[in-house]
Amino acid sequence: MAGIRESAAALRAAFAAVTDAPVLHAFAVKATPLVPVLALLNTEGIGVEVASPGELALARAAGVRPEHTVLDSPAKTPAELREALALGIAVNADNPQELARIDALAAAGTASPIGVRVNPQIGAGAIGALSTATATSKFGFALRDEGARESVVRMFLERPWLTRLHTHSGSQGIPLARMAEGVAAVYALAEEINAAAGRQQIETVDIGGGLPVNFASEETTPTFEEYARLLKREVPGLLDGRYGLVTEFGRSLLAKHGTVLARVEYAKVSGSRPIAVTHAGVQVATRTVYDPVSWPLRIAAYDAKGRPKTGAETVQDIAGPACFAGDLLAEGRSLPLLEQGDVVAALDTGAYYFTAHYGYNSLPRPAVHGFAVSADTVDFSLVRAAQSAEEIVAEAGGDRAGALLG
Ligand SMILES: *Cc1c(COP(=O)(O)O)cnc(C)c1O
User: Which positions does the record annotate as the modified residue N6-(pyridoxal phosphate)lysine (predicted)?
Assistant: First the structure.
C-alpha cells in the first residue's frame, strides 16, 4: 500500500512542479480494476479513467466522485453516454458519429465537460498492439488525414460547449520524446481552436497516460518527474497556467506494486531442460505468455519457506498450469534450480497481469492481498478473494444445464 501511495504522491508532485493550473490525475482503471486499489488512489486525490460500464461501476463502488471521472472508449453505446452525461462525468468523444449522439443528448443540458479525442498520428512504438498513435490507429480523430484538421476546428466552432482535447499517444515501448511530440501536437491544435474561436474555448487538455515501465530491474525509470520536466521544456505553453490538465496513467502507477506468487507444483526435466511447473501462467500473465519477446518478466526464486533461493544458476523453464505448450512464464531463464514446493515470484505485475485475468482452462482468478510493512511486521489485507469452483460454474451457465436439451 505504501508503494502505491508513493507513486501517487510522485505523480502529483511531478506535475505540481511544472504548472499552477488544476490537474486531475485519472488512473486508467483497466490497468488494475480492483475497487480497494481505486479507493486507495482516491484518498491520494487520484481519480479514474474508465472505458466501459464495468469500469465505471468499479469506480463508483470505490467512491470516486463524478468530477474525478473521465470516460474514454471507442465504442460507447447511447446508454453509456446517457449515463455519463447524467452523472456529469467528463466524456471524450472518439469519432464524428459519437459526437452526433452527444449533440442530441447534450442539448438537454449536462454538467459533463466534453472533449474530443485526437490522434496526432506520430507513429508507432516498439509494440504494435499498444501503439495508439499510428496513421491507421482505431482511436480518435486522425489529425493528419486530408482535411481532418480543418474539420476538427470547425467541429469545435460549431459546438461552443466542447471544451476539451484528449490524446493518449504513449504506451509501453514508446519513447518519452515521441509522447511529448503527441502532446505538443494537441497543444498546437488547442491554440489553433482558441484563436479561431476568439476566446479560450479549450480549457483543459487531457494528455492521456502511457508512461513506460522498466520491467528489467527494481529501478523506476522513466519517472513522472522526468516526463513532466520534458513536457515543460517541449510544450511550455501547455503548462503556463492557461490550461487545466488531465492525465491518465495506468501501468506506471501500479506495475511495480504487484507480484504474482506461485508454488512449484512439480519440477521435471524434458529433453535435458529443467522445467518448474507452477500455477502462474497464461491466466495471470497473458501478454507475457503470448508475446514473451515484448513482455519479458523478471522471476525471483524462493524456497518453500519463502527464503531467497541460492545455489548455482541453471537454465530452466518456468511453466504455467494451462494445457498448451506455450504456457511458459519464462523460457530458458537462469535461476537457482527450482524444486518441488519452491515459490516463484513474477515481479512488476501490479498492472495488466493478475488484474486482467484470462479464463483459459477455467483457471480461477487468484486472491489478491495488499500488504503494509511496519517496524518488523507485515500486515496483509485481502483485496480480492480467490474465485471458487462454484463461481466458475455459475459464470459458465451452471444454473441452466438443461438449456440446450430441448
Ligand atoms: C490504456 C489507456 C491509458 C493508460 O495507459 P498506460 O499505458 O497504462 O499508462 C490511458 N488512457 C487511455 C485512453 C487508455 O486507453
Answer: 30
Pocket test for ligand 1, best of 248, 348, 349, 355 (most atoms within 8 A of CB): 248
323 has catalytic annotation:
yes
User: pTM for this structure?
Assistant: 0.96
Is 252 touching ligand 1 by the criterion CB < 6 Å? yes
For the chain, residues classed under CATH 2.40.37.10 are 258-392
Query: Which one of the listed residues 129, 216, 315, 323 is annotated catalytic?
Result: 323
Residues of the chain with CATH 3.20.20.10: 2-255
- Ligand 1 pocket member 125 (CB < 6 A): no
The tens digit of pLDDT for each residue in 42-81 reads 999 999 999 999 999 999 999 999 999 999 999 999 999 9
Ligand 1 atom nearest 352 alpha carbon: 8
| Residue 213 CB contacts under 8 Å (≥ 6 apart), including other chains | 172, 251, 252, 255, 256, 348, 351
For residues 207 and 36, what is the distance between their CA atoms, to the nearest angstrom? Answer: 26
| pLDDT tens, residue by residue, 280-318 | 999 999 999 999 999 999 999 999 999 999 999 999 999
Query: Which amino acid appears at position 308 of this protein?
Result: P
Q: Cell triple for residue 207?
A: 494528455
The alpha-carbon radius of gyration of the chain (Å, integer) is 23
**Cell 459546438 sits on residue:** 159
Query: What is residue 361's three-state secondary structure?
Result: helix
Which is the CATH superfamily of the domain at 2-255? Alanine racemase (3.20.20.10)
Facing residues of 70 across strands?
49, 90
Q: Is the CB of 173 under 6 A from ligand 1?
A: no
Q: Match 515501448 to its residue by C-alpha cell.
A: 173
Grid coordinates 462525468 are at which residue?
89
